Amino acid sequence: MNNNRKKFGLIGLAGYIAERHLKAIKETGNDLIAALDKFDNVGKIDRYFPNADFFTEFERFDRHIDKLHREGTQLDYITICTPNYLHDAHIRFALRVGADAICEKPIVLNPWNVDALQEIEKETGGKVNTILQLRLHPSIIALKEKIDKEPAGKIHEIDLTYLTSRGKWYYTSWKGDLDKSGGIATNIGIHFFDMLMWIFGDVKKNIVHLHEHDRAAGYMELEKARVRWFLSINYDVLPDEIKAKGQRTYRSITVDGEEIEFSGGFEDLHTKSYEEILKGKGFGLDDARPSIELVHAIRNAPKQKWQGEEHPFVHKPLSKHPFSK
């Protein structure tokens, strides 16, 4: 057996994002030893690690990890694919059992959670890694390199539009609970905000026009850009030409009126993320902090319609919550 193979645990196996992590662990030549989810619909694991131990109760998973440790088998990493509000606790667990953490975004919901995790990193010597895969996309890297070479003071005009339709199930699930998901801007927007700040610099002004159950919108001024943004999970706001194609998702980022083309190239970004993490070059808490601070500010900001540049979709008719009376 290859002694260089790293040993992984995984929490949140039943979620849809978990398969990208299973694939990444396998494609980087490592082993999944144990996994946890309270739901047992996890047959996808057979394509990757059929011999991994699986638990539906945290207490039994915890006991198994401790038993492995006492028998001389130490997990190197624990991957976390659980609902957003549980990330903090599961990262703490990973560090306490001597593993580094790999956590899906948003790594936590609040800036002070980042502070606390950095203290635990110091105490344990462990590392918290997160997945900011857009930073590894070739088109995004090329754009950053172009912007970095520009003369100081140049300001770009950006429109960010991300519409990804969700059914009524969304509002019943944890994703529809603001306290558990962080809301629309956090749940579906954070990786775009991270990417924009990575390229165009820190936030200088942040105005929120909408933050409803099914959409959020606002205006930001970054060091090198002015950004109008609109995010929604409501099918009704999709452009008619997208609906006519039978599509339920629309993603567009324009810089000075020119579309950034990154519709492809996403398939291997989790594997690339793992490759960087295994080399000790993963994105950590300091990398994640700016976007966590921004979405927290958006979540708590007063709505200021008519202030700042508005995204054209802001004026689309608002919809009622599907379960409102």
General description of the model:
The chain has 325 residues and is an alpha/beta fold. It has 2 domains: 7-130, Rossmann fold (3-Layer(aba) Sandwich); 136-315, Dihydrodipicolinate Reductase, domain 2, CATH 3.30.360.10. It contains 11 helices and 12 strands. It has helices spanning 18-27, 58-70, 87-96, 111-124, 138-148, 169-172, 178-181, 184-200, 240-244, 269-278, 285-300, and strands at 7-11, 31-36, 53-55, 77-80, 100-103, 128-130, 156-164, 203-211, 215-222, 225-232, 249-255, 258-259. A 6-stranded parallel sheet has the order 3-2-1-4-5-6, with helices on both faces. Strands 8-9-10-7-11-12 form a 6-stranded mixed sheet, with helices on one face. A hairpin with a 3-residue loop joins strand 8 (203-211) and strand 9 (215-222). Helix 1 crosses helix 10 (269-278), helix 5 crosses helix 8 (184-200) and helix 8 (184-200) packs across helix 11 (285-300). The protein starts with 6 loop residues before the first strand and ends in a 25-residue tail after the last helix. The mean pLDDT is 95.
